Input
Amino acid sequence: MARIPGEGLAKGLAVTFKHMVRKSVTQQYPEVQPDLPPRSRGVIALVEENCTVCMLCARECPDWCIYIDSHKETLPAPEGGRPRARNVLDRFAIDFSLCMYCGICVEVCPFDALFWAPEFEYAEYDIRDLLHEKDRLGEWVGSVPPPPPHEVGAEPPKEAVAASRPARGPAGRTGDEPARAGAGRPAAEPAEQAGQAGPSVGPSGRSQAEDQGERGPAEKTARREAPGSRAAIRAIRPPGALPKRPPASATPAPPSETPPETPGASETSGGAARPGFSGTERRDTSSTGDESPDIRPAAASPGDEAAGDAAAGADSPAPPRPAAGSPGDKAVGDAAAGAESPAPPPPSAAGSPGDEVPGEGPARREPPRALRNVRSIRPPGSLPKKDAPPDRGGEG
Amino acid sequence: MAEVLDVALRLIVIVVVFLALPLVVGQMEHKAMAHMQSRLGPMYAGGFHGWAQLIADGVKFVQKEDVIPAAADRRVFALAPAVALVPYLVVLVVIPVGPGLFGVDLDAGLFFVLAVMGVGVLGAIMAGWASGNKYSVLGGMRAAAQLVSYELPLVLAASSVAMAAGTLSLNGIVEQWRWWWLPWQAVGAVVFFVAGLAELRRPPFDMPIAESEIIMGPMTEYTGLRFALFMLAEYAGIVVLSALTTVLFLGGWHGPLLPGPVWTLLKVLALAFVVIWVRVSYPRLREDQLQKLAWVGLVPLALLQLALTGVVKLIAA
Output
């Protein structure tokens, strides 16, 4: 095939002309903020309430740029056992002049206290100002976006599945099967609803409310100033946290119990309060939008569908729960089981302030989930901890 | 009195066009080139898509220090930008924009235009010689070589049109123009346009400037306002070349629906766009390729066009 003379010249002209009519990809950055995906490595946000000063992040940090100070406080045990010692965070600082944004601290945090936020405009004139103390780190929490939804039809997040299982118990094998069944059902449900909400459970369950509602806009707003997501994150309880609001409602003497706790740790009171306020709005959304029930327990959250499922079954004492419910003793999970069965009123009275919609759904769901889940959740990468064996047994 | 007023008005309009159109073409180059390179180009100056960028550039140039090298031939150095710029202004005087819309209708308008455009190149040669800089001299020599090579096809192609129209008056040529001249004079049009590009030292024929080899050629030592005048001369040259091509080969104000001057303006801007387009698309020629293109490519083609024009003219007559 003979080459047409001037063909190459015409090709060159065509290329440039095509580029001219094509839309330019230039981003007008200062005027138009970039649309960063969730989990963009912008800045690390700290949810102070969730930090148990386990020091994992500080130890794993390749740059050693995380500084943590803490002290121990002893709390009288709720049931009159030996007093419990717990860590109180005094200082948590990340030096972003050293940080290399590897994200290992976020990965390694077993208590969902560290998150990636897509903010990146925190340049300073003085390098020393890049040391963000915990209040500054806490401010970033507001811009943590909700995690992207899973694919339609994907398996529900591990956390959700785990949370729907009975907490633990020596009678693991027996409790196992029903639990599986229980887990299986919710798994199917989310798949159905996935089209609309995706596995809205989100591993950590933050901002499910948004997930449920209008996804698109919600996500956008969530990026910049997501009150919802913030509330959700705040609501996440670390697995190890002691029961803040007396689940003790189950136990005979609630009044005697609550006072002792509050003096012990400022955090407890704070923790007790926080779920309250953040809980209200969440609760509102949940009560309006039917199925965004739980966010607080979300840390451990079972899929809400799972939760709903459990809750639905809760009227008639759900099979799995009692089975696994375990005679378990000191465990919070136990208390949870206890709190669960007594039914809505007590938790509402004790834990969450006036928000409690008498409505069956939310009221019933929350307390159980929060407590049940807590112990059953394992961070994906973590090695089996000391209390793992029982869990394993429970989970099969 | 009325005659004087008439002449004054025409001259004022021409000066305004001379100052405004190069800016329009420059802005078009900024934006079109940017988008062809997947950029946005100026976006800030003036607020709307950087429309005031060239004005801002002008303000910047005015504020700069006017440096004249110690080794420079001061007078020639200072005069060179004017020599480069003024011929294009003079050429605009004789270009007809619409029926009866022209500065002056010269009988030998085509001669005048080609002669004066040749003077424009002298500005570059003067600047190259006077700067006292080896790069400038090299650039000046290249400009001279380019002028010598490309003046010939330019004149040959233009004379083909003059033959076809039977007149040297630009106004007369446009009046004689018929649509079938387009295919008839197509080769001549291409030769004229390409040779004109080379004469303007526009890419891909910008060997005299060739940043990668000889800094900025004749303009190496120029700063501030003088440099701005050279740039203005370049864009004025684009306008003049586009206008001449329009008048000689594209029928000037002839066109359906729209009034004549609008047609002229549209054709001029379209050709100016082609100048920019070619600049963005092609790499710079080498010096020997440039000479080869002129003598092996354009001159024979222009002669062919001349022969074709003569044959058709004879048969038609």
Summary: Chain B has a mean pLDDT of 87. Chain B touches chain A at residues 32, 34-40, 43, 277-278, 280-282 (CB under 8 Å).
